[in-house]
Design brief:
heterodimer, A: 324 residues, mainly alpha, two-stranded antiparallel sheet, 12 helices, B: 517 residues, alpha+beta, D-Maltodextrin-Binding Protein, domain 2, Dipeptide-binding Protein, domain 1, 11-stranded mixed sheet, 4-stranded antiparallel sheet, transport (chain A), cell membrane (chain A), ABC transporter permease (chain A), transmembrane helix (chain A), membrane (chain A)
């Protein structure tokens, strides 16, 4: 277990190193950061002077070396726009994004498990067919449209929900706040969470359904029926537990993907998380922030994957983490 | 866990007993100011902030003339000097008194600001005569002293002098990196900044000591939230989550206008959108007849009606109505037959193939406009290979002059026609910084001579004639292809009486805003 974690840590470092090289080498193609920082009538001479001052005219290796030297000490550069260390800026926005992912995950679990099991047990019922039909639509509709549709119905027409933003937040420490502890914050969280969940929910319903159906066909379930075990025990204790294995694997990876999907959801709802921050950074060519974001997201992927492997080991003890 | 839920319910009850007061304004813009330093970036966001928290010496009114603010009176005492009498008894947010010293301090800072120094390049000195009198001195007779004075927002010199805890000069101006002025603010304006989370929200409170007691403005608190996505911005207004938004995208005008809860207000703007024909890259563009043919082939009215949905004023020149240089005698000239005839005359009957680049997220409908222009040019045999890209990638291409036709939009910082000529149509001269955005490489020494003369002409009538003559020259030469001036649009809930405080510069004077009960 310990060896496993050490190896994962090493992998994480390699992943982040590769990400940093890639993101660093594309920065020239992202555009010119000075355009967003200077007014229209600033002369070319001054632009060049500022480029020199910021070290943007140095050769790639010099720039990368400088970046790496600082990165080793935990400094991923200073955001052009926020004028604060890029890592601090991102970490300050992280709670908002995690809230959203948390909200969406909760919705996915609450809905996908019962719906998936129901449609696996009663594949021919009308309700199952409706679930499958709706989930197909859910997968096909772009997040953007879902978000605008929800805003239109629930914020404008019905007036039940706020249209944008995170609402009141509760300050835990100076740099850490959460909307999960205020009524207003929770109220603001509902629509974005449903939007974010709308991408993954159909996927999970279908996944649980098909896995469960497969398991229900297996020999040991037939044997359980033959033994006369109550349906409740067959479905939930014997079948569902084995259904969960692939679901956990996919789930872990998808939570990472969800962090990426927050970019769209956060943009539409003006949710002040790091996905929105990233899109803004790309628009403003805030390269230090872009690089830092990619590295942080890379780290999140590695961490979630590691957690998934650990949980997998608990659910299915036949899996050995050392992999020998 | 129990503690946590206790905490939650405490917070819950707190958030329930704090309703918004009547005279509070919640507004949403597409962006928030990048910094609290009014000299860091010359942009709409910064100027809006400056008008809320500072006061200029003079400010534009809706007729495009000047109202005194911190300057009560002004007069030209010789051809290089304008004397301003400053308002007495004005206090900064910090409690310090406002005097001519602050104007001198601010003027120096403007001269050092990379973004603002161009506007003040003709000024040599701000000379303090006494505590409430100041002379602005220029190196030559300069007609735009008042125009420039709209950019002088006096800063609290005592507040911005000294060293911060980590030894930085408080007056320092940083384009990138941290500075005292980018996080702290003391002006004379109607509002103080009470809290700010960049990119999330800025909160303002009314300045209780504000000097302008005649203003009917009754807004106590303002919460400014940037909402980047236009549909969300509109939705927030329609849902009643905010009271005032700008800009309103053309696609939503009908919906906003139809609502009985909100008002939509539009105004002709001053930002010109145009196409530049690069004569250095394409030989045919050197021929005046080809340029004219293109000018005749482009249907400005069609673009304004169909693509901009009426949310633009078709243009035949740089200067919008209200500018001195605006020449009434220059009609739109859409005429495909004439265009074809001109192409034939120039020997390009069979047309040619060229490239074009345009941004796709900078101006309203920029990519669609470029596509429309492409199909209009195809009617006279000019095949255009169009590439559109995000602004971040577009500007470096623009600087390289990477295509034969480039799109650009321009707003004159000085609200004066000469600014268009200097940046967009003057012969390219890197030393003098002229023609910096003239990717067409159009060059007309005669027009340049007139432009230089207009720069030192303080007689308004003579200057008007000069600048209108230049417009005519550029029109006859088809120096570039003007498309339209982008309109401006704001929307606000009915109780917010936004109309009287709006202007074409797009700095609503929020200090004077009245919210009806």
């Amino acid at each position: 277990m310990f060896a496993f974690l050490i190896r994962r840590l090493f992998q994480a470092l390699v992943v982040m190193f590769v990400i940093s090289i890639i993101s660093f080498s594309i920065q020239d193609n992202l555009g010119d950061p000075l355009r967003e920082m200077l007014g229209q009538s600033v002369s070319e001479e001054q632009r060049q002077a500022m480029r020199d001052e910021m070290g943007l005219n140095d050769p790639f290796l010099t720039q990368y070396g400088r970046f790496l030297g600082k990165a080793v000490q935990g400094d991923l550069g200073t955001s052009y726009f926020f004028k604060e260390p890029a890592l601090d800026v991102i970490l300050k926005k992280l709670p908002a994004t995690l809230e959203l992912v948390f909200g969406a995950t909760l919705i996915i679990i609450v809905f996908s498990v019962p719906l998936g099991i129901y449609s696996a047990i009663n594949p021919q019922s009308i309700f199952s067919k409706i679930i499958m039909g709706v989930s197909t639509i859910g997968i096909s509709v772009p997040v953007f449209l879902t978000a605008i549709g929800l805003i239109y119905v629930f914020a404008i027409e019905l007036g039940w929900m706020p249209a944008f933003g995170r609402g009141e937040t509760f300050q835990i420490t100076e740099n850490l706040d959460t909307a999960l502890l205020t009524a207003d914050g929770l109220h603001h969280l509902i629509l974005p969470s449903f939007t974010l969940a709308s991408i993954m929910l159909p996927l999970f319903i279908r996944l649980i359904r098909s896995e469960m159906m497969e398991v229900l066909q297996s020999e040991y379930i037939k044997f359980a029926w033959a033994k006369g075990i109550s349906p409740w025990r067959v479905y939930f204790l014997h079948a569902f537990k084995n259904t969960m294995l692939p679901v956990i694997t996919v789930g872990g990876v998808q939570i990472g993907t969800m962090v990426a999907y927050t970019i769209l959801t956060e943009t539409v709802f003006q949710w002040p998380g790091m996905g929105f921050l990233f899109l803004e950074a790309v628009n403003r060519v805030d390269t230090p922030l872009i690089v830092a974001y990619l590295i942080v997201v890379g780290a999140i992927f590695v961490v979630t994957n590691t957690l998934v492997d650990l949980i997998y080991g608990f659910v299915n003890p036949t899996v050995k983490l050392t992999g020998k | 866990m129990k503690k946590l839920s206790l905490l939650a319910s405490a917070v819950l009850s707190l958030s329930l007993i704090a309703p918004l007061q009547a005279a509070d304004l919640r507004m949403a813009y597409d962006a928030d100011p990048v910094s609290l330093d009014p000299h860091e970036q010359l942009s709409g966001g910064t100027l809006q902030l400056a008008h809320m928290t500072f006061d200029p010496l003079v400010r534009w009114n809706r007729d495009l003339s000047f109202d005194g603010r911190l300057a009560e009176k002004w007069e030209r005492i010789d051809d290089k000097t304008v004397r301003f009498n400053l308002r007495k008894g004005v206090k900064f947010h910090s409690g310090n008194d406002f005097t001519a010293k602050d104007v001198v301090f601010t003027f120096k800072r403007l001269k050092d600001s990379p973004d603002f120094k161009a506007i003040f390049s003709s000024f040599t000195e701000a000379k303090m005569v006494d505590d409430y009198t100041i002379d602005l001195i220029t190196d030559k007779p300069f007609p735009l002293v008042l125009h420039s004075a709209t950019y002088i927002f006096p800063m609290d010199s005592k507040f911005y002098t000294g060293k911060t805890e980590d030894g930085k000069d408080k007056a320092g101006l940083a384009k990138h990196g941290d500075s005292f002025a980018s996080r702290n603010l003391s002006g004379t304006g109607p509002f103080t900044v009470t809290s700010r989370e960049q990119g999330v929200k800025v909160e303002f409170a009314r300045n209780k000591m504000y000097w302008d007691t005649e203003s009917k403005g009754n807004v106590d608190n303002i919460i400014l939230t940037p909402i980047k996505e236009a549909p969300t911005r509109v939705a927030a207004l329609l849902a009643g989550d905010v009271d005032f938004i700008a800009p309103v995208p053309p696609t939503d005008h009908k919906r906003v206008d139809a609502s009985d809860k909100v008002d939509l207000i539009t105004m002709g703007g001053t930002r010109i959108i145009m196409l530049q024909l690069n004569q250095d890259r394409v030989k045919a563009f050197k021929d005046k007849r080809v340029r004219q043919a293109i000018a005749y082939a482009v249907n400005q009215d069609g673009i304004a009606q169909k693509i901009m949905k009426g949310f633009a004023t078709p243009a035949s020149q740089f200067s919008p109505k209200g500018y001195l240089g605006h020449n009434e005698s220059l009609p739109l000239r859409f005429d495909v037959a004439k265009a074809k005839a001109l192409m034939k005359e120039a020997g390009y009957e069979d047309g040619f193939t060229i490239t074009m680049m345009a941004p796709n997220n900078r101006y309203v409908n920029d990519a669609k406009i470029a596509q429309a222009a492409t199909s209009m040019l195809s009617k006279i045999g000019i095949k255009v290979d169009l590439k559109t890209m995000p602004k971040a990638q577009y500007w470096p291409k623009f600087d390289e002059r990477a295509a034969d036709i480039m799109m650009i939009g321009w707003h004159a910082d000085t609200e004066d026609s000469n600014n268009f000529f200097e940046f967009l149509s003057a012969c390219v001269d890197k030393e003098k910084g002229l023609g910096q955005y003239n990717t067409g490489n159009y060059c007309n020494p005669e027009a340049d001579k007139l432009m230089q003369a207009a720069n030192v002409e303080t007689d308004v009538a003579k200057r008007t004639v000069m600048m209108q003559t230049i417009e005519k020259m550029l029109y006859d030469d088809a120096a570039f292809v003007p498309l339209h001036w982008q309109n401006l649009a704001w929307a606000a809930s009915k109780k917010v009486d936004i109309e009287p405080i709006l202007n074409v510069m797009d700095f609503p004077y929020l200090g004077d805003l009245v919210i009806k009960e």
